[in-house]
Amino acid sequence: MKRHSRVLFPVAVVLGLLLLGVEFTLRQRNRALEERVVWSFSPAEVDSLRWGKGDSVSVVLVRRDGTWWVRVDSTLYPADANRVNTLLDDLSAVKGVRWAKGDLARYELDSTGLVVEVFARTPLRLVVGKTGPTFEQSFVRFADGDEVFLVRGNWKPRFLLNPTAWRRRKLFDATAEEVREVRLGDRLHLVRADTGFVVNGMPADSQKTTLWLRRLLGLSSFSYLDTLGRDTLGLDEPAYVVEVVTARDTERLKVSDRPVGPNRTYLPAVREGDPSIYGVNRTHFESNLWIPPDSLVARDTTGQDTARQAEEETERESHGS
User: Fold this and answer.
1) What are the distances in angstroms from CA 108 to CA 60, 75, 115, 135, 173?
2) Exposed/middle/buried for 130, CB within 10 Å: 0-12, 13-18, 19+?
């Protein structure tokens, strides 16, 4: 029995040391994989960003006087500010773990990777590689290093390589709650009074007016007509002029009555101070937005049921947008 004890004792010691070694290794591994903020910056400090594959640059975004612009060929056009700001907010503080070092091609982080540059007080230059195991992660590295990180977020699809995808589509900045006045040329003049809206001097129906305002202010472009030229599109003397007045500013949209595109689908439109020529849906604009003033006038008790009219307006909006 003593002889067996003498044999078992060293074995137990060795096994104990092995277990301690495994535990130590696991603790070190867990510590190395502990999630932390890999990079951070303040979105307010960013004045430009750009990205592209390898040495090429596909998209350039710049901020001037608080407005985001995107470069298409050699021209700067207004960018979709909500899209840009959302991207910056999500990118501004990203958590992840150290994953590997070297072997960059395995993670698509070699010279063919997506290079993202953010120009702020402290510039950030990243290479974005393949999607991680959960499809909600990405492999990335800093452009000047070969250490690979696995970070939160599926980033590569967020950096669309077509600059046109980053252009502004929405034609008004105002919200219905901010509107003080709206003019449709000499046709309609809507004013917010203390008791509600007034249209061409007559009380407006609150429900119908709010629905119409939301449709108008939600107007978006379906195409860009910059290559056609303003002089050929009738925009020097537009058939339709829309003015939206808020406490902040006055927005003016000029719309031509010369339809273009497949089946003459689009009406050319320009915003004041904006080099873009937008294409708005002709049917939606002419039928749902450029309306007669009496369509917003409140009815008396002998008139039609305004609740039913509001339902009709809602259905009309869903078909027209």
Assistant:
1) 23, 32, 11, 15, 40
2) middle
Separation CA 20–CA 60 (nearest Å) = 54
Q: Are 71 and 163 in contact (CB under 8 A)?
A: yes
Please tell me whether residue 18 adopts helix, strand or coil conformation: helix
Distance (Å, whole) CA 78 – CA 20: 61
Q: Cα angle vertex 73, ends 116, 68, to 5°?
A: 60
Phi and psi for 2 in degrees, rounded to 5?
Answer: -65, -35
d(CA 4, CA 7): 5
Helix, coil or strand: residue 1: coil
Mention every residue, 6+ apart, whose C-beta is less than 8 A from residue 164: 72, 224
Residue pLDDT, tens place only, 237-293: 999 999 999 999 999 999 999 999 999 999 999 999 999 999 999 999 999 999 999
Residue 245 half-sphere exposure, CB side, CA atoms within 13 Å? 9
- Residues 6+ away with beta carbon under 8 Å from 280: 171, 219, 220, 221, 222, 255, 266, 267, 269
Whether the Cβ atoms of residue 115 and residue 143 lie closer than 8 Å to each other: yes
What type of residue sits at position 115? V
pLDDT digits (tens, 9 = 90+) for 132-176: 999 899 999 999 999 999 999 999 999 999 999 999 999 999 999
Residue 197 class from Cβ within 10 Å (0-12 exposed, 13-18 middle, 19+ buried)? buried
Q: What is the DSSP string of 244-269?
A: EE-SS-EEEEEE-S--BSGGG-EEEE
Residue closest to 171 by CA, chosen among 266, 236, 242 = 242
